[in-house]
Amino acid sequence: MSTVEKAGAGAGTYVDQRLGSNKFLGRSLRKVFPDHWSFMLGEIALYSFIVILLTGTYLTLFYKPSMVEVIYNGSYVPLKGIHMSEAYATSLDISFDVRGGLLLRQMHHWAALIFVAAVSVHLLRIFFTGAFRKPREFNWIIGVVLLTLSLGAGFTGYSLPDDLLSGTGLQIARGIVQAIPIVGTWGAFLLFGGQFPGDDFISRIYSVHILLIPGLILALVTVHLMMVWVQKHTQFPGPGRTNNNVVGYPLMPVYMAKAGGFFFIVFGIIALLGGLVSINPIWIFGPYVPDQVSAGSQPDWYIGWLDGMLRTMPNWETAVAGITISWNVFIPAVVLPGLIFTAMALYPFLEAWVTGDKKEHHLLERPRNAPVRTAIGVMSLTFYMLLWVGGANDIIATTFDLSINSITWFLRVALFVLPPLAFVFTKRVCLGLQRKDRDKLLHGYESGRILRLPNGEFVEVHQPLGVKERAVIESRLNTDHAPLPMPAAVDASGVANKHYRVKRLQAKLSRVWYADQVPAPTLAEIEEGQHHAAHGALSEAPLHAHADALENVPFHGGVLHTPGGETTNQEQLTDRGGHL
Amino acid sequence: MTDVNTHGDSDHGAAGGRLPVADIPHKPRRTDVDPKAARRAERQVAAMFTLSALSVVLFVVAYVTISKEANVYIPVLGLVGAMNLALGVTMGAAVFLIGAGAIQWAKKLMPDVEVVQERHELQSAPEDTTAAVDQYERGKEESGFAGYKIIRRSLLGALALFPIPLVVLLRDLWIQPTDTPNPQAELETTIWRKGSRIVVDGTETPVKATDLRVGGLISAIPENLKEVQEEERTLNARGKAAILVVRMQPDEIRSQQGENWDYQGILAYSKICTHVGCPISLYEQRTHHLLCPCHQSTFDLADSGNVIFGPAARRMPQLPIGVDDEGYLVALADFAEPVGPSFWERG
After folding, report:
1. Structure pTM?
2. Domain B186-346: what homologous superfamily?
3. A542 or B314: which leads in pLDDT
């Protein structure tokens, strides 16, 4: 034992005598996590959040959240002598007078963009693989709340420099609040401390941006990770992987090195971006003045879909009996986002209700094996992307020389037509893939080699599936495919079923969910099919016996193998003398 | 440390931190079978860590030596600040290389054999649930919560009301001026008055009718805006009073919001969009269309500022104008309707 380790052991004992921590360490140091590239998405979110906290704390040392008017006298010459808020002036100071300030500001902005992107894509991964199913519904809800908070964090942060672009964003936000029926006018006055822009708002969103939202995100991320720890990570199907185990690498040393190392990778890439790629050059936009705007105003990417809704909405407004209801703003900016996020949060419960599935799921489901879920996902994504197009309609119009009006009209129709088409299309693709899987199980895979039989017949050689592929495809056999039974209106003793209508709806939806599923073959059929394929492949054997066949050795991942020379882990373990 | 047994609670069913190996096909890596490759990987990892340390030194050197004003031309990036570039690249390299080294270490030299751990049922054992229920019942009984109906109800009532002060305290987020009955009163007026001179935004020069050619457009504010801004120390007045002044042939004007609110074909409209309040600046003189750059609402200034496309529901309010004794453009009154986005009480 080295001196350092001795000191460590001493410290460990000291802490253990006070907290009993060794018990936890003994259980946890070798905790197993499964491996898959898509599991890094959540990690990217976590690590970029840490970078945001670090860089953000640095920025608070120099930034002053004040709307007091000052005359700029920093080193950026084009703005010298211009009246501006102290918030904008200090943002310029960070960019031009603090050494490394611009780097940290750009890192903060890049990290924020990456954070929201990673959260979003992580959420898509969870959705499309069914990782939100029992027992992980709570974590799904926390995830949806975290996504909402990340949008809030992004928008408030975007507004702080008080440049012309961000001020325009705030003006729109004021218009949206003002459009909320009954309380909107008062709400806007309370938020802004009176009329827009007032002199309070920057300092108010500052405390929201640096304290309230990050505090909530930090607390929820902690709970999020604790739940992952307690419930253990889900895994993709594969050989040896079941619903009751975790196959992967131990925390110490592999994941400490991999996940810990990945933190530095994410941090490093953000630093490189901050140094190499300019983001949000506020000095170009100039200070905020409520009667100025630049053409082609665009929000950060994650607000684009909301802006798209606002742009696409028809101009409906009701003015009656002395009141005004601005449907044209209230619906796209408040009602629809509220409904969308609520539906997202409730999705796991809705799906479980429809499928009647009450089992625990630790093996991820392949998107093709849940065609309706996958189709709902692609449908929603289509909707989202169309809204992006809406948010960029002016850019698209000028770039491609189109009329903004026709783009808007196209979207007003497309938003209702294309998503359902995407649903149908995706479901058909999933079912096609299911059919292909069934074929592979029953007949092996197509090798692409044509063989001429002695009787002159040409056949394509089918080969049995590899262990891994077969395990992945067979994972579907363990899932249920049966819709819920239709309820009876009255039971055997003639008593009316009180919940008949609800139960009937549930059963009907359940039928839709499972409709058209391609039946999975039975294990016996698979065995026979694979055996048959193996036999068919054997008919090629004379080719292999040919003298130069051996020179054509398959090459795997840097290691040369002779055919059939793969060793199992057990064998390899024996080679290493039983030690891992 | 391999001979120290960390027993724990046998969660992994394996002593000495050893885990059962998954029985799946596995190909040994080059570093597993070739000691030379393993040594090469070792050197790679160490080299990355060393380069990281070196980058830190370069970072400090760059921080101290490079001038804040220095620019440098980099192909693709163009002319960029030398300081930001140097600090970003060295800091990025320093951090990235630690990560790359650690991952190379894990991938090449640490075991890549997958191991298995069993999951445990998440639901508590029945006896644990029974124990929890028993404890709860005992606690409930001792508190008398079920028995003392009046305590229970009064407590619920008190708990329901106690957040009210926290909400009431938010009222003064807007410190309401004594002469302002409600928000609506502030939204409905601007500082334009009869006789307010129209001055060009930026130069603050008053405008004569002859200064504006047909087809021209200026962004304008009331003459006293500067003083009001100084006094209020906010940009609020500007946010409502900003206008656009355009000139067209008098016979091109198809309609306006009041009779003779133009002056010889010169029209003044609010600059604040009635959708969500963006300032509007895109004007097409041939069609007299005004386009909002934020959400593309389009208004026709030759036709009362009515909406012809986009999400805005209200026309742009028009400011009645004329000229004073010296021939400068002035407002004849404040706007007849509130400027900017709609609100509940607008009617």
Report:
1. 0.91
2. Rieske [2Fe-2S] iron-sulphur domain (2.102.10.10)
3. B314
